[in-house]
Amino acid sequence: MKFTVSIRLSNTEGALERVLGRLRQRAFEISSMSADRTPDRAFIDARFTIEGTRDVEPVIKQLAKLYEVQSLKFQYTEGGAHNGQWQNHTEREVCLPV
């Protein structure tokens, strides 16, 4: 099955590496990836297309538990039960210093 994951991370050291490591631990292959910093450099907006034979739900739950993850959406691109629909998994409020 193929999935697209859009994720917003705090721009901290190692945040993107932790996401990539979690995907590798769950035996997902990354087909494509793009990442950009927000203009204020506080966050990283990343988008992954991943493939795997396993269910995506457990890895999405694990990604949502990472401290740096601010928001996370995924879409079944091929072979999923909700093919073509975006699923909001988590939204967290961000409190930034004034």
Largest sheet: 5 strands, antiparallel
Rg over alpha carbons: 13 Å
Per DSSP, the total helix count is: 2
What's the CATH H-level homologous superfamily?
Answer: ACT domain
**Morphology call:** globular
At CATH level 3, the topology is Alpha-Beta Plaits
Question: How far is the N terminus from the C terminus?
Answer: 44 Å
Give a verbal description of the structure.
By secondary structure, this protein is an alpha+beta fold. The chain is built from 2 helices and 5 strands. The chain is globular. It starts with a strand and ends in a 7-residue tail after the last strand.
Please outline what is shown here.
The protein has a single domain, classed as Alpha-Beta Plaits (2-Layer Sandwich).
Key attributes of the depicted protein:
alpha+beta, Alpha-Beta Plaits, five-stranded antiparallel β-sheet, 98 residues
Protein topology:
Layout (H helix, E strand, L loop, with lengths): L1 E9 L4 H11 L3 E9 L5 E9 L5 H9 L3 E10 L7 E6 L7
Antiparallel strand pairs: 1-3, 1-4, 2-3, 4-5
